[in-house]
From TrEMBL:
It is found in: Membrane. The keyword Membrane applies. PANTHER family: TRANSPORTER (PTHR42948). PROSITE patterns: NA_NEUROTRAN_SYMP_3 (PS50267). This is Sodium-dependent transporter. InterPro entries: Na/ntran_symport, SNS_sf, YocR/YhdH-like. Keywords: Membrane, Transmembrane, Transmembrane helix, Transport. The keyword Iron-sulfur does not apply.
């Protein structure tokens, strides 16, 4: 009889929720959500996003977590057990974190660099023009920070589910929540000239519908849907893996709601922390910083705060490091769990091999801004470097396609009752059962294929 590596498990509902929320709460919440909200009409984007969370987010999150718990396996094994002919979907899902892991530690290294700068009192330097560009184009500095971040991630995975992932999440998530509340509240009370934080908060939450057209509304909708993927860690096998560690007596209904609330709450607080501050010190023009908001615009805002700027900056980037680390852990864990199942290896050996592979990959991607610099045209009309290519393939191309296939499998082949039965197996009633059935059978497949066509540039050609 073949010896299979022993699977770990979360100690209970709290451990699972904190770990899953830690996976969901990442760079997407602290960086991507605020700049998309600023770009897409403030409150308009928020309203659309909240509707998507309780419909699409709920559906995709429920599917992934329940698939994991019912099968007790990670993506490849789980989809194979659901329907052997659909093993290919498990393989596709497995490759999403495989690709994401090549660059996630690089972004983590960038954030860690800023955290160190603020903790050592060098926040003023971080606010100067060219600081970020100078750092990422330095082959030594950028590589060292990426390697450190990668090694820390691997060490936590090496320690296992309970001692590594859960212990880390139990420590970091409460601190992250306290820090983001502190920064968000502080942002409400700052003022500069004739502008103050409360005015910035109103800019953040007030729906801007001026010049709104059907085309613009669809663009906001697709931005919000893309953010949902990025934020909730769905359609990449992570929640399937985490679900496989959940004990049978855990109330999935309650857990999924708690994960939704935690993740969305942090995203809203991040916007509340960042957008009022940007508005106060940079006005409406500063709201258009886009992806450079975290690394270029925010340090300038912190520098404008005077003596408290370094403290607030340090708090923000510590929080960002924690959020990025918990997400990076979940990405590597999804890969590790699949490899353990496929190759029947133990956790320690698997983590060591993957740690070496991804340390090398992280260095290569970090050098994409210096030694290996090149301009790569992407199908969505943008031009990027190695990191942008990996991000596009995983997030914009593969994830919508995987979600489409997954909803077809659940909605029309194994049927929704396969999921519903597992949710209710612990003796609880599935409160949103009818919504789940309608979403997974009819709504999700249509929207997912539209998102896929949009991200590949094909929708514009139709």
């Amino acid at each position: 009889m073949e010896n299979k590596p022993k699977r770990g498990s979360f100690t209970g509902q709290l451990g699972f929720v904190l770990a899953a929320a830690g996976s969901a709460v990442g760079v997407g919440n602290l960086w991507r959500f605020p700049y998309l909200a600023a770009k897409d009409g403030g409150g308009l984007f928020i309203i659309i996003y909240l509707i998507l969370v309780v419909t699409f987010g709920f559906t995709l999150l429920t599917s992934d977590i329940t698939i994991g718990r019912k099968t007790g396996k990670s993506a490849i094994g789980a989809y194979t057990e659901m329907n052997p002919k659909w093993k290919f979907l498990g393989v596709l899902t497995f490759f999403v974190p495989v690709i994401i892991m090549t660059y996630y530690a690089v972004i983590g290294g960038w954030i860690a660099k800023y955290m160190v700068a603020y903790l050592t009192g060098e926040g003023g330097a971080a606010a100067k023009d060219g600081y970020f560009t100078s750092f990422i184009s330095d082959p030594v500095q950028s590589s060292v920070y990426a390697v450190i971040f990668m090694v820390v991630t691997a060490v936590i995975i090496y320690r296992g589910v309970e001692k590594g992932i859960e212990s880390c999440s139990r420590f970091m998530m409460p601190i992250l929540l306290v820090l983001i509340i502190f920064v968000a509240v502080y942002s409400l009370f700052i003022h500069h000239g004739d502008r103050n934080g409360l005015q910035g908060f109103m800019v953040y939450i007030t729906p801007d519908v001026k010049g709104l057209t059907v085309k613009k509304f669809m663009a906001v909708l697709l931005d919000a849907m893309s953010q949902l993927f990025f934020s909730l860690s769905v359609s990449m096998g992570i929640m399937i893996t985490y679900g496989s560690y959940v004990k049978k007596d855990v109330d999935l209904n309650k857990s999924i709601s708690q994960i939704e609330i935690f993740d969305t709450g942090v995203a809203l607080l991040a916007g509340m922390a960042i957008i009022p501050a940007i508005y106060v010190f940079s006005g409406l023009s500063g709201m258009n910083a886009g992806p450079g908001l975290m690394f270029i615009s925010l340090p300038k805002v912190f520098a404008s705060m005077g003596v408290f700027g370094n403290v607030v900056g340090a708090a923000f980037f510590i929080m960002a490091v924690f959020a990025t680390l918990t997400s990076c852990i979940s990405v590597l864990e999804a890969i590790t769990a699949n490899c353990m199942e496929v190759f029947h290896t133990d956790r320690h050996k698997t983590t060591l091999v993957l740690g070496i592979i991804y340390t090398i990959a992280s260095v290569i991607i970090s050098l994409g801004y210096s030694v290996f610099y090149c301009k790569i045209p992407l199908p969505n009309g943008t031009v990027g470097q190695l990191l942008d290519l990996m991000d596009y393939v995983s997030n914009s191309f593969m994830m919508p396609f995987i979600s489409f296939l997954s909803t077809i499998l659940i909605g029309w082949i194994v049927r929704p009752q396969w999921i519903i039965g597992e949710v209710e197996s612990s003796g609880v009633r599935f409160h949103r059962k009818q919504l789940y059935i309608i979403m997974v059978k009819f709504v999700c497949p249509v929207i997912m294929i539209m998102l896929f066509l949009q991200s590949t540039g094909l929708l514009a050609k139709l």
